[in-house]
């Protein structure tokens, strides 16, 4: 910190991303990437785009990608917003859609970027504890609020809310925006995109980082009523009007168009998750039911920090979670069967 820093930045408490090691020999099960490669069609589209056009700015509206998303979900392009990773889309939603008169509500535990955005934008918030099964209770959100946000499935628990619960919430919460962060929805849940035509205050955010194996390309999107999308476009055009580069637009669109590859890889991850869950249970771990590409587990006798440290010594990285509310959980990204075996051998 120096005298050159603004008072604003002195007070910022930034998000700390998970470790991204330079060594590739590690079994990397710490930041919920997909262990399988992206669609070959996405890679081919990126290759084809590497041409003289890189001199020129990309389409500021990313129309090609919006069309791919809209046609996949059977919606209109003016219901789609795209951004540089869903973290950026979330940031624009925090700035553009949450009201300040009442606090924003989100569960605890949940994605730790939410309080960071609140700090950045000066948004008041209240957290609501999960129940004993680590599940979100939507009825708890029945109180004055400036907005509601939660991931579905929740992170880092992996626990899923059924669509009926989300619809119940939307029925009693009509005066503020409800954001459902569906980063992991393709691994076992039903998307709330089916509800956007009926609930003008619903915004659903997804990413291509997980089920479409494109974390390195940084593409996320939101789906909602055109009025909500317009607010996000206003924020975007006041911040970075070209958030997606040419490679990201064509690569992400092609990934969306390759349904076969998407289905194959997501089924492989789901199968691998079920096997890993059973193997960990057989070794005495308590594993929460997960609808995501990671599992949240604890061992009744072994300290989670120690397990994580010992695994690290053996070249396997998992994430140890420690917050005011929980201490003993590991979050383990589902890998290929070979990676999962390496984890089990190390355990
Ligand atoms: N939401 C949740 C719940 C996440 O876990 C993540 C990944 N850290 C994101 C959003 C952001 O993903 P990305 O920016 O790669 O789209």
TrEMBL record:
Chain's gene name: hisC
Catalytic activity: L-histidinol phosphate + 2-oxoglutarate = 3-(imidazol-4-yl)-2-oxopropyl phosphate + L-glutamate
Membrane-spanning residues: none
Quaternary structure, from the entry: Homodimer.
GO biological process, one term: L-histidine biosynthetic process
Sequence ranges assigned to domain Aminotransferase class I/classII large in this UniProt record: 26-347
Enzyme class: transferase
Modification N6-(pyridoxal phosphate)lysine occurs at: 210
NCBIfam families noted in UniProt: hisC (TIGR01141)
Family annotation (Pfam families): Aminotran_1_2 (PF00155)
InterPro entries for the chain: Aminotrans_II_pyridoxalP_BS, Aminotransferase_I/II_large, HisP_aminotrans, HistidinolP_aminotransfase, PyrdxlP-dep_Trfase, PyrdxlP-dep_Trfase_major, PyrdxlP-dep_Trfase_small
Protein known as: Histidinol-phosphate aminotransferase
Superkingdom assignment: Bacteria
Enzyme Commission identifier(s): 2.6.1.9
GO MF term (any one): histidinol-phosphate transaminase activity
Pathway(s) this gene product operates in, as recorded in its UniProt entry: Amino-acid biosynthesis; L-histidine biosynthesis; L-histidine from 5-phospho-alpha-D-ribose 1-diphosphate: step 7/9
Cofactor: pyridoxal 5'-phosphate
